[in-house]
Amino acid sequence: AMTAIADVAASRTFDGVDLHALAAAIQTPFYAYSANAIRQRIAGLQTAFDGLDHRICYAVKANSNIAILQLMAHQGIGADIVSVGELQRSLAAGIPAERIVFSGVGKTREEIGKALAVGVWRFNVESADELALLEQVAKEQGACARAAVRINPDVDAQTHAKISTGKAENKFGVSIDEARRWFVQSSGSAHLRLDGLHAHIGSQILSLEPFRRALRRVEDFRRELVEAGHEIRSVDIGGGLGVSYRAGLDRPVDVNEYAALVREIFASFNGTLVLEPGRYLVGEAGILLTRAIRVKSAGEREFLVVDAAMNDLLRPSLYEAWHDIVPLHDRREPARYDVVGPVCETGDTFARDRAMTRCRAGDLLMIGGAGAYGSSMASTYNSRPLTAEVLLDDGRYAVIRRRQSFAEMVAGEQLPQAWNET
Ligand code: LLP
């Protein structure tokens, strides 16, 4: 119930915190996350997979605030990282290295070296070049790297093209034919233990079918490898579980049905299943609070200009993603707005021709589904400082990121003091 945006709109409270009072205390725009909503999602997933040998490695990219990562750590959740920056955040938040998996097509030698040195649990390897590099770096460190092959199962995740990753034409993973050669070639390596499979086919997936098809391919391949004498200790099934962005319209996959599918497909697997949920754990647990700056009429259209913008929440601009927008005042007469931010781009639009109650300057609105890929994708475009983030928990709140100051925003910049020759 913590995540149902209609309840929040009706009560104007989120995780027990009065949103008007909060917005009076914290200048808008800001992100607010419900700790209880996140804990509920974690518990739901843990319960669904109860009794199965599994590890949940939260995809840090979804929301990488250290306080969110600490909340994950306290619930026993590990991390799926894609950079050394995410590694450092995870460790700083108290997620132990042995609960961290490292994914991504562009891991550099330096990144591999650092991750290996701190002892991350597994590398999800995506190219032959990376595999060779991993083995070499491990040899230099006198270590043995644990690795899984990211398989590209060539299935359509039936989601937005920009967040679809499991088709053969995408840059992610390798074909089963290539993976097969890797297992043959790596067996007996002293510095590389290739004993896992990994697949992640995309994000915001709203039906079980793409998962079923991809995971069946992975499991068929796993059995083939075992028959050929290879030991497979882990299967990482990635993330991708969708959430509701349109209250009452989006129908996310039920986690218990998802878990039942995974149990059925991997019934004969004795190793560890790894999950990498990002959006599912935090997406609906976050809102972006914004105030109307003014209403601008232009012929037929009315623009509701709010103080949040595409630099704060990029998803509508980048993916034409729908986010529910709910004014937090009493109902007035109906109106339709293009809800736009102050950034100087036509694409700085949160919604087009959206029906809602009439708004005036100073009104508070919330944008739903902002917990995942919101603050983590933010920028300072138009020299707008990074926005504040607040964690809510049972009627109390804590600022988990203060609004960036001008000095912080320009901290790395300097006038040329000396001109160097290369
Ligand atoms: N594992 C891997 C290897 C991934 O690449 C991703 C997300 C995840 C797990 C987590 O996926 P999730 O459970 O959150 O669907 N910025 C986009 C989403 C990009 C997802 C990238 N990879 C958006 O705002 O929709």
Secondary-structure topology with pairs:
Elements: H1 5-11, E1 13-14, E2 17-18, H2 19-25, E3 30-34, H3 35-48, E4 54-59, H4 66-74, E5 78-81, H5 84-92, E6 100-102, H6 109-118, E7 122-125, H7 128-140, E8 145-150, H8 176-186, E9 192-198, H9 208-227, E10 234-236, H10 255-265, E11 272-275, H11 279-282, E12 286-298, E13 301-306, H12 315-319, E14 325-327, E15 334-340, E16 349-357, E17 364-367, E18 388-393, E19 396-401, H13 406-409
Parallel strand pairs: 3-18, 4-5, 4-11, 5-6, 6-7, 7-8, 8-9, 9-10, 10-11, 13-15
Antiparallel strand pairs: 1-2, 3-12, 12-13, 12-17, 14-17, 15-16, 18-19
Helix pairs in contact: 3-10, 6-7, 9-10
The structure holds ligand LLP.
Ligand LLP binds near residues 203, 241, 276 and 373.
What do you see in this structure?
- This protein has 13 helices and 19 strands.
- The protein is an alpha/beta fold and 422 residues long.
- It folds into two domains: 5-32 and 284-409, Lyase, Ornithine Decarboxylase, Chain A, domain 1 (Beta Barrel), CATH 2.40.37.10; 104-275, Alpha-Beta Barrel (TIM Barrel), CATH 3.20.20.
- The strands form three sheets. Strands 3, 12, 13, 14, 15, 16, 17, 18 and 19 form a nine-stranded mixed beta sheet that branches. The protein has an eight-stranded parallel beta barrel with strand order 4-5-6-7-8-9-10-11, surrounded by four helices.
- Strand 10, helix 10 (255-265) and strand 11 (272-275) form a beta-alpha-beta unit.
- Helix 6 (109-118) crosses helix 7.
- The protein is globular and about 70 Å long.
- The N and C termini lie far apart (60 Å).
- The chain binds ligand LLP.
- Substrate binds at residues 279, 315, 319, 345, 373.
